[in-house]
Amino acid sequence: MLSNMKLLTPELSRRNLLGGALFAGAALAVPARAAAPNGIDPTIRMRALASLNKHRADIQHTDKIGIADFSRASREPRFHILDLASGATTTYLVAHGRGSDPAHTGWLSRWSNAEGSNASSPGTYVTGDFYVGKHGQSMRLEGLDPTNSAAAPRAIVVHAAWYVSPSIVSMTGKLGRSQGCFAFSTADLKPVLDQLGHGRMLYADKV
């Protein structure tokens, strides 16, 4: 997420990754429940397709959609890109916001759309322009639902982060946390951006 804050030093970054953080801003508690062991949770898939139909006028390209299943722990690949023609999916690791997991358990426990909450927000997004920012190549997002309507002013975007990788999972059993952005590994960012591009739907939810 873009901000005027200085980049964290490696020492502080590791401390932030391994330690908890205070939750700021209004949030909505979400009960935990295990997701389907493989593939896209059928309930979330159904909701995503219903949302695509609802927001079709705002979605320029409807051949593929991105689905973040935050029912799963951050250690699991839980971001799916679904090809609606073939039904094929590609799946990636993705981080959630630190405000959604203040104790840093590795599980998303609450949502928030509030400025300063550093939390993930549920709902439907449309992908926007690419740009180069604090985290390098990134992609803007616009929230289309009341639950994520502040995505643009909060600078909730897609970007790469050092705290997202299989090696981080191996070391800590979970990923680090973003400031509410959809953060991917450096290796996965390009395929994610290439597949989603501009004007496609990204959907975030939890069952």
Topology of helices and strands:
Elements: H1 10-18, E1 28-29, H2 42-54, E2 64-69, E3 79-83, E4 89-92, E5 110-111, E6 123-133, E7 136-143, E8 157-160, H3 166-172, E9 182-184, H4 186-196, E10 201-205
Parallel strand pairs: 2-10, 8-9
Antiparallel strand pairs: 1-5, 2-3, 3-4, 6-7, 6-10, 7-8
Low-pLDDT regions:
1-37
Based on Cα principal axes, name the global outline: globular
| SSE succession | HEHEEEEEEEHEHE
- Radius of gyration equals 15 Å
The number of distinct β-strands equals 10
Counting helices, strands and paired strands, the structural category is alpha+beta
Alpha-carbon distance between the termini?
Answer: 25 Å
**What spatial order of strands do you see in the largest sheet?**
4-3-2-10-6-7-8-9
**Helix content bin:** 10-25%
- SS field, number of helical segments: 4
Residue-averaged pLDDT:
86
User: Beta fraction of the residues?
Assistant: 15-25%
The main sheet comes to: 8 strands, mixed
Structural description of this entry:
Helix 3 links the parallel strand 8 (157-160) and strand 9. The model is unreliable at 1-37 (pLDDT under 50). The chain is globular. The strands form 2 sheets. It has an 8-stranded mixed beta sheet with strand order 4-3-2-10-6-7-8-9. Strands 1-5 form a two-stranded antiparallel sheet. The protein is of the alpha+beta class and 207 residues long. The protein is built from 4 helices and 10 strands, in the order H-E-H-E-E-E-E-E-E-E-H-E-H-E.
